[in-house]
Amino acid sequence: MIRVDNVVKTFGGFHAVDGASLEIAQGSITGLIGPNGAGKTTLFNVIAGVLQPTSGKVTMMGEDITGLPPHDLFHKGLLRTFQIAHEFGSMTCRENLMMVPSGQSGETLWNTWFGRKRIADEERALKAKADEVLEFLTIEHLADHPAGAVSGGQKKLLELGRTMMVDAKIVFLDEVGAGVNRTLLYTISDTIKRLNEERGYTFVVIEHDMDFIERLCDPVICMAEGKVLAEGTLAEIKANEQVIEAYLGTGLKNKDKVGA
């Protein structure tokens, strides 16, 4: 579904991504791990159009999407979330979801004057869809709560909800478990599984919690120093000598968590 060919991203003389190549299969939940500074988030940002690559190519379903801006990729079904959730804090959780779809009739001055019925019909449909999404996420009780007042884990669920408002094809999740308690982390992982199995979403997940990766991801890709080091199951990654060396000695074998 996504193919990355020899992507390089430099900042001055520093190669944050240094000739990375990988493929993301449609329908997979792929984990992306690696030590701090491995280039994982930078690669995410290049694929998602947040950063322009210095060189290399990114394709989606065979189409060259290299350097396309995020709003164009959004319309193609490629979405990216961030380690820190970006909600509209003073708006309710329901309103946060209702804002996601683009091209709404109420966005034009003409329709606010002459298309009020169309706007009202769209708002009813969006409200119904937002409520359906909140129920799917098991946070329907937060529909009327200000999004800025809910917990960190609930904000992460809300970000997943935004992807459901536009029927995303592939979602890049950057440390979705960061700062989330264990109970909500299980809820998030179950939601990702359900979106994958029931709605056909493809996911790529950066995460430092190896329990979370093991619960969700196959395959797992390990990066180090801007390059792809290894790919396979988590068990194969943990047994890979290059990966062990990248994580400084035998630390990866003896730890449940590794730096991201």
TrEMBL record:
What is a single molecular function from GO for this protein?
ATP hydrolysis activity
> Any keyword Nucleotide-binding?
yes
A family per Pfam: BCA_ABC_TP_C
* Annotated ranges, domain ABC transporter: 2-250
GO cellular component terms, alphabetically, are: plasma membrane
Q: Does the keyword Isomerase apply?
A: no
Q: Provide this UniProt record's keywords sorted from A to Z.
A: ATP-binding, Nucleotide-binding, Transport
PROSITE patterns recorded = ABC_TRANSPORTER_1 (PS00211), ABC_TRANSPORTER_2 (PS50893)
PANTHER family named among the record's database cross-references: CONSERVED COMPONENT OF ABC TRANSPORTER FOR NATURAL AMINO ACIDS, CONSERVED COMPONENT OF ABC TRANSPORTER FOR NATURAL AMINO ACIDS-RELATED
**Name recorded for this polypeptide:** ABC transporter ATP-binding protein
Q: Please name the taxonomic classification of the source.
A: Bacteria, Pseudomonadati, Pseudomonadota, Alphaproteobacteria, Rhodobacterales
